[in-house]
Predict the 3D structure of the following.
Amino acid sequence: MMKKVVGIRFKPAGKIYDFDCGAYVLELGDHVIVETEQGLGFGTVAVPPKAREDEPRKKPLKKVHRLASPKDFAQRDKNRDMEQFAHNYCQQCIARLKLKMNLFSVESTFDASKLTFFFTADGRVDFRQLVKMLVKKIGVKIEMRQVGIRNQAKMCGGIGRCGREICCSQFMEKFSPVSIRMAKEQGLSLNPTKISGQCGRLMCCLTYEYETYKMLKANLPKIGRNVQTTEGLGKVIRHNLNTNRFVIRQSDGGKEVELSPENIVKEQK
């Protein structure tokens, strides 16, 4: 059986979830109310509807409940006001209880029955008294969620050293592992202040061209290696990856010569 499946996103750079759009005619950017595990949710169409074979799943796809109405937009605005109030009050409580935690975001379910408080901390935090104070003041279900520093940057957003909005809050759906080896492979500065992002971790964009650099370097001798070439014996001192060439300093005279892989007679270890 064919079903029309639509991709819905609940946050600007959040994960895209599949929903059964049923008989609704939806377009990219439409606002909809959908069924979620926590009740109704307010989302945006990120992937237009496509006919797809009904595949065996552990759980059937939840459905698009309806198109968002002016009343739904008013509810969303009301939720945002409550989130701001809850954030300010929670900050006061944290200061009063002298808890070592950094609250940075509060999110409400669409029906305003639950608030989730996101924070970072160096270790475990005993927030039982804090939750009691929040429930007494706000009167809804409270969840405290401790997340990593990269997640904080994604949720808060910001401007990177490139002058653009940071990738994680703009389009990245999940984090990929980043290592110092990636910076080294691309010939970048290994100064942590120059290759770290807003979160203080290595920049996610170091992964973008890493595989390309590895591929381009595969045909070239490593820097520091002695090679016998048609221009004599020399030590490789740098690469010019855009032209697939490398530069050697000749052992006899110290002259620098730019060559291509075809000029290699023998590569010494």
About this structure: The chain has four domains: 2-68, 73-147, 152-211, 226-267. The domain at 73-147 is CATH 3.30.300.20 (GMP Synthetase; Chain A, domain 3). The two ends are 62 Å apart (CA to CA). The chain has a mean pLDDT of 89.
